[in-house]
Amino acid sequence: MYDAVPSSFVAVLCIFASVLGLANLLFFRLFCRKQTQISLSPMRAFRDWTLPRSMTLGLFVMLIISLVMELAQSPFAEGFGVTANVLLAIPLFLQGISVVDFFIVRAQKNVTLVRTLTYVGLGVLYQFVLYPLVLVGCFDQIFRLRDRMRGMPPRAAA
Protein backbone atom coordinates (compact mmCIF):
# COMPACT_ATOMS: atom_id res chain seq x y z
CA MET A 1 0.00 0.00 0.00
CA TYR A 2 1.05 3.58 -0.47
CA ASP A 3 0.32 6.64 1.60
CA ALA A 4 -1.97 9.18 -0.01
CA VAL A 5 -1.36 12.90 0.07
CA PRO A 6 -3.26 14.40 3.01
CA SER A 7 -6.35 16.28 1.90
CA SER A 8 -5.25 19.36 3.86
CA PHE A 9 -2.20 19.62 1.60
CA VAL A 10 -4.46 20.54 -1.31
CA ALA A 11 -5.99 23.36 0.73
CA VAL A 12 -2.54 24.65 1.66
CA LEU A 13 -1.52 24.62 -2.02
CA CYS A 14 -4.65 26.58 -2.99
CA ILE A 15 -4.11 29.18 -0.27
CA PHE A 16 -0.42 29.52 -1.18
CA ALA A 17 -1.32 29.94 -4.86
CA SER A 18 -3.89 32.62 -3.97
CA VAL A 19 -1.35 34.58 -1.91
CA LEU A 20 1.26 34.22 -4.65
CA GLY A 21 -1.23 35.38 -7.29
CA LEU A 22 -2.14 38.44 -5.22
CA ALA A 23 1.55 39.26 -4.73
CA ASN A 24 2.14 38.94 -8.49
CA LEU A 25 -0.77 41.27 -9.22
CA LEU A 26 0.47 43.89 -6.78
CA PHE A 27 4.07 43.71 -8.02
CA PHE A 28 2.86 43.96 -11.64
CA ARG A 29 0.79 47.05 -10.84
CA LEU A 30 3.76 48.58 -9.01
CA PHE A 31 5.98 47.89 -12.02
CA CYS A 32 3.43 49.34 -14.46
CA ARG A 33 3.00 52.45 -12.34
CA LYS A 34 6.68 53.27 -12.79
CA GLN A 35 6.55 52.79 -16.57
CA THR A 36 5.24 55.81 -18.45
CA GLN A 37 4.34 53.81 -21.57
CA ILE A 38 1.89 51.56 -19.72
CA SER A 39 -1.34 52.92 -18.30
CA LEU A 40 -3.66 50.88 -16.12
CA SER A 41 -7.04 51.84 -14.79
CA PRO A 42 -6.99 52.47 -11.04
CA MET A 43 -8.07 49.64 -8.76
CA ARG A 44 -11.49 49.92 -7.20
CA ALA A 45 -11.78 50.53 -3.50
CA PHE A 46 -11.86 47.32 -1.50
CA ARG A 47 -15.41 48.02 -0.30
CA ASP A 48 -16.57 47.84 -3.95
CA TRP A 49 -14.81 44.55 -4.74
CA THR A 50 -16.95 41.70 -6.08
CA LEU A 51 -16.37 38.42 -7.83
CA PRO A 52 -16.91 38.65 -11.57
CA ARG A 53 -20.41 37.45 -12.44
CA SER A 54 -18.90 35.06 -14.98
CA MET A 55 -17.17 33.13 -12.17
CA THR A 56 -20.39 32.40 -10.31
CA LEU A 57 -21.62 29.69 -12.66
CA GLY A 58 -18.25 27.94 -12.74
CA LEU A 59 -17.93 27.90 -8.95
CA PHE A 60 -21.49 26.62 -8.62
CA VAL A 61 -20.84 23.83 -11.15
CA MET A 62 -17.64 22.86 -9.33
CA LEU A 63 -19.57 22.64 -6.05
CA ILE A 64 -22.29 20.48 -7.67
CA ILE A 65 -19.65 18.16 -9.15
CA SER A 66 -18.09 17.87 -5.71
CA LEU A 67 -21.43 16.87 -4.19
CA VAL A 68 -22.12 14.34 -6.96
CA MET A 69 -18.68 12.79 -6.50
CA GLU A 70 -19.31 12.56 -2.75
CA LEU A 71 -22.68 10.87 -3.28
CA ALA A 72 -21.19 8.48 -5.86
CA GLN A 73 -18.46 7.61 -3.34
CA SER A 74 -15.70 8.35 -5.80
CA PRO A 75 -12.19 7.63 -4.49
CA PHE A 76 -11.15 11.18 -5.42
CA ALA A 77 -14.17 12.87 -3.86
CA GLU A 78 -12.42 13.96 -0.66
CA GLY A 79 -9.52 15.68 -2.41
CA PHE A 80 -11.75 17.31 -5.00
CA GLY A 81 -14.23 18.36 -2.32
CA VAL A 82 -11.54 20.08 -0.26
CA THR A 83 -10.19 21.80 -3.37
CA ALA A 84 -13.65 22.95 -4.45
CA ASN A 85 -14.47 24.24 -0.98
CA VAL A 86 -11.22 26.18 -0.71
CA LEU A 87 -11.56 27.65 -4.20
CA LEU A 88 -15.12 28.66 -3.35
CA ALA A 89 -14.51 29.88 0.21
CA ILE A 90 -11.51 32.17 -0.33
CA PRO A 91 -13.14 34.56 -2.85
CA LEU A 92 -16.49 34.54 -1.06
CA PHE A 93 -14.75 35.22 2.28
CA LEU A 94 -13.01 38.23 0.72
CA GLN A 95 -16.30 39.40 -0.72
CA GLY A 96 -17.88 39.05 2.73
CA ILE A 97 -15.13 41.21 4.23
CA SER A 98 -15.63 43.79 1.49
CA VAL A 99 -19.37 43.86 2.29
CA VAL A 100 -18.53 44.50 5.95
CA ASP A 101 -16.14 47.27 4.86
CA PHE A 102 -18.89 48.75 2.67
CA PHE A 103 -21.22 49.01 5.66
CA ILE A 104 -18.45 50.45 7.86
CA VAL A 105 -17.80 53.24 5.34
CA ARG A 106 -21.53 53.74 4.85
CA ALA A 107 -22.00 54.34 8.60
CA GLN A 108 -19.76 57.44 8.29
CA LYS A 109 -18.83 57.50 11.99
CA ASN A 110 -15.19 57.01 13.08
CA VAL A 111 -14.45 54.96 9.97
CA THR A 112 -10.76 54.41 10.75
CA LEU A 113 -11.35 53.32 14.34
CA VAL A 114 -14.28 51.06 13.49
CA ARG A 115 -12.42 49.55 10.54
CA THR A 116 -9.34 48.84 12.66
CA LEU A 117 -11.34 47.27 15.49
CA THR A 118 -13.37 45.22 13.03
CA TYR A 119 -10.32 43.80 11.26
CA VAL A 120 -8.58 43.02 14.55
CA GLY A 121 -11.77 41.31 15.73
CA LEU A 122 -12.00 39.34 12.49
CA GLY A 123 -8.41 38.21 12.94
CA VAL A 124 -8.98 37.13 16.54
CA LEU A 125 -12.33 35.45 15.86
CA TYR A 126 -11.37 34.09 12.42
CA GLN A 127 -12.41 30.55 13.26
CA PHE A 128 -15.93 31.68 14.16
CA VAL A 129 -16.50 34.34 11.49
CA LEU A 130 -15.15 32.43 8.47
CA TYR A 131 -18.38 30.72 7.44
CA PRO A 132 -20.71 33.62 8.27
CA LEU A 133 -18.56 35.89 6.08
CA VAL A 134 -18.60 33.29 3.30
CA LEU A 135 -22.41 33.31 3.53
CA VAL A 136 -22.48 37.12 3.48
CA GLY A 137 -20.28 37.05 0.38
CA CYS A 138 -22.54 34.42 -1.20
CA PHE A 139 -25.68 36.46 -0.48
CA ASP A 140 -24.02 39.56 -1.89
CA GLN A 141 -22.98 37.66 -5.01
CA ILE A 142 -26.48 36.29 -5.58
CA PHE A 143 -28.69 39.18 -4.44
CA ARG A 144 -26.31 42.13 -5.10
CA LEU A 145 -26.91 43.67 -1.68
CA ARG A 146 -24.45 46.55 -2.12
CA ASP A 147 -25.84 47.53 -5.52
CA ARG A 148 -29.31 47.73 -4.00
CA MET A 149 -28.03 49.68 -0.99
CA ARG A 150 -26.27 52.28 -3.17
CA GLY A 151 -29.62 53.67 -4.25
CA MET A 152 -30.67 54.26 -0.66
CA PRO A 153 -29.28 57.25 1.25
CA PRO A 154 -27.31 56.44 4.42
CA ARG A 155 -29.06 56.93 7.73
CA ALA A 156 -28.61 60.35 9.26
CA ALA A 157 -26.09 60.36 12.11
CA ALA A 158 -27.86 61.08 15.38
TrEMBL record:
* Organism of origin: bioreactor metagenome
Assigned keywords, A-Z: Membrane, Transmembrane, Transmembrane helix
InterPro entries found in the cross-reference section: DUF2232 (IPR018710)
Residue stretches spanning the membrane = 6-31, 51-72, 84-105, 117-143
The answer to whether the entry has keyword Magnesium is no
- One Pfam entry for this protein is DUF2232
Protein name (Swiss-Prot/TrEMBL)? DUF2232 domain-containing protein
